[in-house]
Predict the 3D structure of the following.
Amino acid sequence: MSRRIRFASDSISQVSTLALSVLTLATLLAAPPAWSQTILHYDFDQTGTSVSSDGTSNAPLTLRNSAGTATDLHSADARGVSGRAGDRSFQNTGASDHGSAASAATNGFRADQPDDAAIDGLATFTLSGWFKTGDWTGLSGKTPRLVENHDGANGFNLQFLSGSAGDLKLEIDSTSAPAPLEASSGTTGLYAGKSTWIFFAVRYDGTSSTGNVDFYRGFRNDAEAAELGAASAAVELVASSSLGCTTCTLDRGVVGDDGSGLVIGNRDELGRPFDGFIDDVRIDAGLTIPATLESYRQGALATDPISIEWSSSTTVATTVADQNQNTITVNELSAIDYDATSGRFWGVSDKSGRLLELDVDFDSDGAIVGAASIDAVVVANVSDYEGIALPAGAQSVFVSDEASPPQIREFDLSDGSLLQSLAIPSVFASSRANLRFESLSRSYDETEMVAAVQQALTVDGPSGTSTTIPTVVRMLRQVVAGTSVTPAEQYAYVVEPLHATPLGGDGSSLSEIEHLPDGRLLGIERSESSNETLIRIFEIVRVGATDVSQGAAATGLIGQSYTPVEKTLLFADLLGKLEGFAVGPQLPDGRLVALAVEDNSGSGPNVLHSFVIDVPEPGLGALLTAGVLALGLRHSSAGPRRKVRENR
């Protein structure tokens, strides 16, 4: 797949070559767009009670609680849009009644500044930024403020209409003539993605009297976009007169000079809190063109997101010879891992204590072109094994166990003998039956293993049988030093609620964790109704999450305050009962191929699925400006390619 450079210009949209001279690139980077100019820009990446601006106005914001006291309301590290270390956001989650005028105890916090003449009297302007909100069901008629620069008679404000299924509304000046008074993106829930970062942009053209308000929307990646019905994550015009919007007109002319200051996340007299996270807010003078809005979206992400696509499926036999040359059956595969030395995969059977070696060939697009069961190893302790992790060289194997209490053991791969049983913190003894250590993964640099239970411990919360209440699983990080493996931090991971009813299987749970070569983690969730199984794959970010092995949370999360790991949705589709997922060899174009296994419930052949993972080179997002979008290069981690065949 070729990469293209896109320019923020109405006349030049794409260039299909990377042969761009350094002089030309430098010129583009240095030249700001003539059609709009950023007055205020707040990225919320700092700590403390003040937020600086890098626009033409450097007027800072002050973060305040509901009593007006300056308070550090920055989120934890890596809780900004990108989810990367060093990226924070405005965590305005102090309100208990999203958007409602209520008592001083519940009317929320804010970020504010005194009256700024730089944003007064604008004839045209563009508001943009990101927000993420939670559950606002039933809050009909509430109008939380994203951006407020309005004194009741003059100015502008941008509202999130929680009572209208998640739309935006722009208000200019007072409620007196001329009409119309407000512009709205509609009542179709365009911005309704709960617990999902959404990019917004609203343009107002006061030089026109009709059809002069446009609403734009974007997402972090295509998978999250698909959840809200969008074709891609890129910035898209979603409401305007050209799209048939009948409320996209504000005949107000030049915005009146208000006497109030700017407020983000509320209004200056409080009572209209936006209960959620806000990030990367901009106020531009002028009508910012879509290509520049797209550069804002990509710039906030810092790097191209990981992408995952399903490629193919096949079956392999369940009958194979073990280490003693006995013919045995190996089915109900519940986990899989990849041996880079041999180029083969190892799976583990659910309840038989049997390991299966698989030889799988892929073509250059990641499709399976051949798969065979090679041999098996019967291990010394037969139990309910659910996770597998191979150390480098694959002389031994670690497997996690759903027995009570949950265990992780190491076995010799040559004869199946037990080498060691790992120490497991006592809190995991409160795990639910058949919902214990489902996940196990070992990092490429051999420094850690990560395990996780399938659904919440009894001391951590409810199981995953609800369509509205998530189950919170506990992850265990273990430090690897040679043959020694010792418990370290623990983290909370919030699993998505059940996607549909009636309930089937285990409900909604975390079925696998997998390391990527660069150290990042993937989480594979499975949501089972009686009619279908939804598979979701997320990127997991632990930076900024609470170590729940410490303090009161160490014995249970119920009633405790903590920050869970951050998740970014990368893939969602209806597939089979996937239980294992392993990153395998690198394809010729630099992408990675992954193999997943289904639990066949003890009948029929073993089912395999292949996926293709694109992990872009980090750091290139820093090149983004209003003039140039991303230059993308693929991750080039080394790895054997002997199991990848060129297309003929």
User: Anything to note?
Assistant: The chain is about 5% helix and 40% strand. The first strand starts at residue 36 and ends at 42.
